[in-house]
Amino acid sequence: MKIVGLTGGMGSGKSTIAHMFKEMGVPVYNSDERAKKLMVSSKTARKKIIELLGTRAYSGKKLNRSYIAEMVFKDKGMLKKLNGIVHPLVRKSFKSWAGRQTYPYVIQEAAIIFENKNQDFYDKIILVTAPKEVRLNRILKRDGSQREKILERMGNQWPDSKKIPLADFVVNNKDLAKTRLKVEGIHSSLLDNC
């Protein structure tokens, strides 16, 4: 079974692309969703996150996501430490999940594959791109976040120009009909090479 990474900057439309693959029967693992669950369910992660960020990192049994974002997206060192707690748990969870799949390939949706130097883990990598202003508007609509805070978070991710040469497939996600055709082509190519 092949392992395919699906990555792209905030607001590029990774989840839209992932959904298209799911519609074609491909098992897709969403790393961000899983990370959020593990940050709550893993006692070890919870303890380490509280040690790193303080008790305000949680509100009862829930993550205080706005507080965590405020703390880590303005401090790259803090973000790196948080990723050092969460990413190994996600990797272990993904490997266990992938081992239970029977499809010729699986997709792991992950925002920062290249930034974390994880590209060698994957057989192929799909990069989703979109113009910065399009991405910004999507996030503003989706999250209702402030423009400055979004730009701050975007600053922690590599620009598309740095990621494109490293990707096996690039999906420019501006026009949904064209995007769907591109995804279908990638799906066929991946099946042909499994």
Features:
194 residues, alpha/beta, Rossmann fold, 2 domains, 5-stranded parallel β-sheet, two-stranded antiparallel ribbon, 9 helices
Largest sheet: 5 strands, parallel
CATH topology of the largest domain: Rossmann fold
CATH architecture of the largest domain: 3-Layer(aba) Sandwich
Radius of gyration, whole Å: 17 Å
Mind telling me the CATH superfamily name of the largest domain? P-loop containing nucleotide triphosphate hydrolases
Helix content: 40-55%
What's the overall average pLDDT, rounded? Answer: 93
Please give the domain count.
Answer: 2
Tell me the number of helical segments per DSSP (H or I, 4 or more residues long). Answer: 9
Strand order of the largest sheet: 2-5-1-6-7
Indicate the structural class.
alpha/beta
Output the helix-strand order.
EHEHHEEHHEEHHHEH
The backbone outline, from C-alpha atoms, is: globular
Percent strand: 5-15%
Assembly level: single chain
User: What top-tier CATH class of the largest domain fits best?
Assistant: Alpha Beta
Which runs of at least 5 residues are low in confidence (pLDDT < 50)? none
Number of strands: 7
